[in-house]
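Supplementary Note 3. Input sequence used for the single-chain structure prediction.
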Amino acid sequence: MKKIILFLFILSACNSSVKTNQEIDFNKSEMTWLNQATIYEVNLRQYTSDGTINSFKKKLPKLKELGVDILWFMPIQPIGIKNRKAVGDSFVEDFPNPDYEKYWGSPYSISDYKQVNPRYGTLSEFKELTKLCHELDIKVVLDWVANHTAWDNPWIIDHPDWYTHDGSGKITDPIGDDGKSWGWTDVADLNYDNDKMRKAMIDAMSFWIKECDIDGFRCDVAMEVPVDFWNEASEQLNQIKPIFMLAESEAHKPRMFDSAFDAYYGWEMHHVFNKIYAGELSASEIIRVMNDKDSICGDHVFPMNFITNHDENSWNGTIGERLGESWEAMAVLSYSLRGMPLIYSGQEVGLDHRLSFFEKDSIDWNKANGEDYFNFYKGLNKLKQEKAFSTNSPISCDIIGKDLFRIIRGDSSEYQIILNLNSGEAITQKVSIPENYEIVLQKGINDNNAMCKWGYLILKMKDM
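The predicted structure, written as discrete structure tokens, is reproduced below.
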């Protein structure tokens, strides 16, 4: 097929570009489902009024309709009671009348790696949920907290040598290289110099694959756990079945992505999205980040791209607070760049509330424009199923004019995505669409064929 380039009547030539044409080697030939996947983060606690597995199960048909391929469940294990966080740095036990029914605590303070939180349901119910997901051709990924445990995890009593100790011999919460606490005082830091602890951790991860047939792990604060542990764990776990490994880590440690992980967090790109909207960066920064990450990791792993997640929503603000009127263009961008896009619980109906991290705080699924948001993301997920949008398809990017950002996807430029990422006034450059292309999605194209601020255009080459 002849390569056809979209013509734009512009005032200046391209000033920056990047091309990635090599195909990603997942090293797992059985896992072709990663090529087209959209991942969906499930905040089980906040998903329904009672926050249970059985209530969530009723939502599966709607998620199938949305078109997601992987469900990543935030930790489903029991949460510790000792030093449980309530508000800010306060503990529930410090209140005159401790209310453990009100304050559920951090999902990342795990008291038993091989159990299901009774608030959510039972192990058998989670098994059934995974089975139903697989029947719908949806994969299941479990959040895994390997860096620390709750203070009342049995390991604390039975194996205190499995934890990090300070100079006085006391078990510590996680601390940084500067010797200062991170503030995660509700959890105890694990010691990866202990081989027996490592074996127990891998055994616990294996449990969920063998018992529930899950398909992978999202590995919490993966950069704080030794790389050699992840390599060892991944090798052993993949002997049970091929699994997807997602690191909650930016791509800044090359060795980390040699073998253990398939994907990493696109944290830096996410912050670039926010700063472009704030007028602090230009669209050229997107290309710089892409080049930088590929130079560190190569293209055998890929980023998870997102405009929100549980941390961003709870601690840094809603999509509306951070991205304002640019949110739709940034969502399109997160789907169009190389990698796997993420949808967080409630994002598909326009979640505009910071969900509490320590308390029960149910998502409002009856938003006024919820169906419009749902159809928008449904359309992007359908687009993701096209080969040209697969995780490992060829991609090239350039900047035309001031901040008109263009992405070309596919071996023969089957798709072109143009976005106005100028946070100032609308760009008045006219866009000419060749006869060989048709419009798939668009926003912000005025009567003069000029793309307005935060507008976008997705074009598909017509069948030749």
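The CA atoms of residues 316 and 344 lie 14 Å apart. Residues 1-27 have pLDDT under 50 and may be disordered.
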